[in-house]
Task: structure prediction
Amino acid sequence: MEIKAGLMDFEALNKMVRADAEDGKKLVLREVNGQRYIGCGLCGSAEIDVYGTPGNDMAAFLNGPSITVYGNGQDQLGNTMNAGTVVVHGSVGDTAGYSMRGGEIFVKGSAGSRVGIHMKAYKEHHPVLVIGGSVGDFCGEYMAGGTLIVLGQGGKPSPITRYCASGIHGGKLVLRGEVSPSQIAREADVLPMDEETLSEIEPLIERWCGYFGGDKRELLSGKFTLIKPKGKNPFARLYTNNVY
Amino acid sequence: MLYNEGRAHLPNGCAISGIIDTSGGLFSGSDIIESIALMHERSNGLGGGFAAYGIYPDHPDEYAIHVFYDDLKAQENVEAFLEKHFLIMLSERIPTRKNANIVRSPIIWRYFAQPLRNRVAVSGYDEEEYVARCVIHVNNDFDGAFVFSSGINMGAFKGVGYPEDIGEFYMLDNYHGYSWTAHGRFPTNTPGWWGGAHPFTLLDFSIVHNGEISSYDANRRYIEMYDYHCSLMTDTEVMTYLADMILRRHALPIHMLPKIFAAPMWEEIARMDDKSREEYETLRAVYAGALINGPFSIILGFNGGFMALNDRLKLRSMVTAKAGSKVYVASEESAIRRIEKNLDEIWTPRGGEPVIALVDENADIGRRRRVL
Result:
């Protein structure tokens, strides 16, 4: 099933997508440009290929299907996503993986600001976000769970910019490349790579290479920095029991 | 003037878009209308507008004064004032086309005018300051009248409606400029009314803005010390006046403006080398009242170029791109791709990082503001 989106209104397009996204079925959307909410809240196991530039909140609340984008994503890609896989053969805008609580997002290129803001994990739900390039300010802001990997390819001096992991209280960030402590929020712990994390990210990097090409061994041989919250409850004294 | 909305707080949105041909080539308003129209959902129909540069080449040294009037009495009063202070070369209704979605429009007039030399001389101001004083006086002291554009070889066109309808209403497809900016409004804290639509202008400075300024009152009190008056019931106008004061009256180069509006945190300044640290510390100290806090993405237009800027914490979206001699800015990438499929480069500037696009020095575009 193919749909040519063109200048189609987002409501009309999403109505068609929802009607056709049956389990195991493949849907191809062509000439997409700016239509919001593609795949929003979809359940099941459909596969959707998107050609063009899908609009904001693509894959928001996604709950199972796989979406592959041949182009760049805009803002809030994977907003509060629950399950499923999003693969972007390009870059994404601000707040990709916003409040994501399950599923996986793989991005070939770079991402804007506040990537993975407030990602969270619960029991078997463990969101994964892998960015091939670099990210903007506030990466992993208020992060509460899950794994966020930034591979730092593309020639930038660092995989991150400023204020990384501001307000982090759960989950972990794995950054490949040069990182200075001044780029990272005070409430985060900057740690060397450990065996457990390395074995966790290895299959994810292998899958990233599978989608976009690239040498897994070379990617794994880079310099990694691991970022976690300081302690189990780093903000316990910020609002209550304040001793300052 | 009519307020088409109460004073309720609505969820935020807004769209901005800008296109400039740095070779100075002129193009019609159709592109910018299509670009802003693609982001229809970001607006709610309570404000749309455009700024266009290079559109009045036949009036190379006359100020194009665009005015909204509530009624003929207001027009009579303002015209008496303008005639006393300007030589009016041409006075005409701004041509509009009927549009089913644009209703209750005010009387929309424009004047091509030269300040009276003897008046300028006795005022003690230079010519631009004289014009700015006249504009601020009309907006502050005349009932039912608002000057919404007052630059040379440029013009703002705005009103209550979706931006694509406003563009159609003003027939912008008939105008040709080298630089265009546009705004689709989703008013948050203030009424949707004709004067409150973006862009906000003074002389050839114009600003379209997505966001809201939490430092507004601090900025307003600061700028009112220098005889600017905020009379349009919205936060954005204060940024236009700040830009006018800093770039025109204080003649600072444009690269300093983002260092004032979106100054880095002190701890970041502390890590800079000596030369940069001194510059940033000085600007933060001298222009503390011009620091803009809160989410914004803006495009500041002026004769000869524009500057796009995000707040330092990057709380609004903004994408920039290049294709040939053209530079594009928009709230969403798709709004750029709508009008140019083959982009040479596309990127997202980080918070506080300006994108400054200037028309080539040797291009003949008429009046040009020196900003370097």
About this structure: Chain A is about 15% helix and 25% strand. The mean pLDDT of chain A is 95. The longest helix of chain A spans residues 195-212.
